[in-house]
Design goal:
The protein is α+β, with helices and mostly antiparallel strands and 521 residues long. The chain is 35% helix and 21% strand. The chain contains 15 helices and 15 strands.
């Protein structure tokens, strides 16, 4: 019997209803949020081997049942004691049978009634008799006392003020008492970083454009590292001019200022006069800020009387907010026409950027790209050139391989400087990303688009694309993302949660080794 089909009903504008099959694109996984919709009809699905119900089932034949280390050790010891007890009982029953067999009938006056107990039934009864007499040898009562200890430990943990969360007004909750006995046996901790050690709130801190680094400031990790080192008497000897005053257009709205923490020390180059300049480096900086304001999937979500940024990735919130901080405010996105609107905070003009194509981020690609058509005003602000441009952002291990040979920043000295800088940022737990661009003539883009449109109309190519098999769609995307020019790199900080450095230090003092598993460099 074939499995039942799940149908999806989509109401059209003319009142008709279109019926289509539900796919994985319609499934909202646990922990995800659905936004930008007033209401939704939902069906709760619990299926597969990865659900909580399946995890609680007994392991299949030959499988492993998860248990605590102490519990397994106790069960092994009890099983050993049961074996010893059974051996003693069998030995006692055998010795008794030997005594009975070794004398003539009636000779054992003190064993009256047992003279004839020489068969297997009598031996078995005697063994069970010894078992009942020696049953206290097995500490069954230990399990009762053990559970009582768990209850007392649970009460201590849940009423410990050191484990109380004042911000959430929640005490520590013990949901599995068996884990309490494991706490003192932990030697290694493998931890994720984002959302576990960190607050999952990104802040734009630094960037490098044209080989020049902008932005300074310590992170929570760098401050923690410095605190562990002995104090030194070294002095930098640098006398800076002091940070330059920020222009009037700089800054963010109340809803986005939490995503930007850009600082200057007055020693290195300042970004603000460069953004208003007319030289090559100024054009690079302006276009870099444009790329951050354009190359993203952020939407505007109405909340009350205002619109706030809504994104599945907090990194993109930091980039869009940084673009606003430096002069380009993302104000609207029309999904039906593919037009993205930016407000130039210097001139208070609003520019419409046409999104021609978007290649979303995937773990296999490690990059995201958009193909846009800039209006003439923005083209002039970037120093002229073609209106159609591709902006790409991604991991340095992937994007640096896509740079055109001989392009700006692709020489060996520039690559070494950039890699050293990325490693320096990674050492203080900054999340790094590399940005590139490619200018396309109308003829070049039109020829590519005709092939891309034909590939998307081919059902076989689309099917292979969805299954991750070799296909022309992916090939054409990669061909357009090739021969890039390096724009620069960004560094954002995922701030640690309160108390994390102190907790990590306490764990190290207790001899616990902490391994952090992260996708960052």
């Amino acid at each position: 019997m074939p499995p039942p089909r799940a149908w999806q009903f989509i109401k059209k504008g003319d009142g008709d209803v279109e019926v289509s099959l539900l796919t994985t694109d319609s499934v909202l996984l646990r922990g995800c949020q659905l936004r930008n919709t007033d209401w939704v009809l939902a069906l709760v699905l619990n299926t597969g081997t990865e659900t909580k119900v399946s995890f609680r089932k007994a392991a299949p034949p030959g499988g492993e049942v998860k248990d605590t280390h102490t519990n397994g050790m106790i069960n092994t010891d009890v099983a050993f004691l049961v074996g010893v007890l059974m051996f003693i009982c069998m030995l006692g029953a055998s010795v008794h049978a030997g005594f009975v067999t070794g004398y003539e009938e009636g000779a054992l006056w003190y064993l009256d009634g047992n003279e004839g107990g020489r068969d297997f039934g009598a031996w078995l009864i005697m063994m069970l008799t010894y078992f009942l007499l020696s049953s206290a040898f097995i500490p069954i009562v230990f399990y009762v006392f053990r559970n009582m200890i768990f209850l007392l430990s649970k009460a201590f943990v849940e009423n410990d003020l050191e484990l109380y969360d004042a911000e959430g007004d929640e005490p520590c909750m013990v949901r599995t008492m068996n884990l309490l006995e494991e706490l003192g046996q932990v030697s290694h901790i493998f931890s994720d970083k984002t959302g576990t050690l960190t607050s999952n709130c990104m802040e734009f801190r630094r960037c490098v454009v044209g080989g020049i680094t902008y932005g300074v400031g310590d992170t929570a990790i760098s401050r923690s590292i410095k605190a562990q080192k002995p104090p030194t008497q070294e002095a930098s000897g640098k006398a800076g001019r002091g940070p330059l005053p920020t222009p009037s257009y700089a800054g963010c709205k109340a809803t986005t200022k939490q995503f930007v923490n850009f600082e200057e020390d007055g020693v290195g180059p300042s970004i603000w006069p460069m953004l208003d300049g007319k030289d090559e480096q100024s054009y690079r900086l302006v276009e870099f800020m444009l790329a951050m304001a354009i190359n993203h999937s952020v939407l505007l979500e109405p909340v009350g009387a205002e619109k706030v940024l809504s994104a599945s990735s907090p990194d993109e919130l930091a980039f869009v907010s940084a673009a606003e901080h430096f002069g380009f405010d993302f104000v609207d996105r029309d999904l039906s026409t593919g037009v993205l609107k930016l407000r130039n905070k210097r001139t208070l003009e609003t520019h419409a950027v046409e999104i021609l194509e978007a290649f979303p981020y995937e773990s296999s690609r490690k990059r995201m790209s958009v193909v846009v058509r800039l209006p003439p005003e923005l083209v002039a602000m970037c120093g002229g050139g073609e209106a159609v441009r591709l902006y790409c952002k991604g991991a340095d291990s992937v994007l640096l391989e896509l740079l055109a040979e001989g392009s700006h920043g692709s020489d060996s000295d520039s690559m070494k400087h950039l890699n050293d800088l990325l490693y320096e940022w990674a050492d203080i737990a900054l999340r790094t990303l590399v940005w590139g661009r490619r200018a396309l003539s109308d003829t070049e883009y039109d020829a590519w688009f005709r092939e891309y449109e034909a590939a998307n109309a081919d059902q076989n190519e689309v099917a292979n694309f969805k299954k991750g098999k070799p296909n022309k769609i992916t090939t054409l995307q990669v061909s357009l993302e090739d021969q890039l020019s390096l724009q620069g790199a960004t560094a954002i900080e995922d701030k640690l949660q309160d108390g994390v450095p102190e907790v990590l230090q306490d764990m190290r003092s207790a001899g616990i080794k902490v391994w952090m598993l992260t996708g960052d460099k």
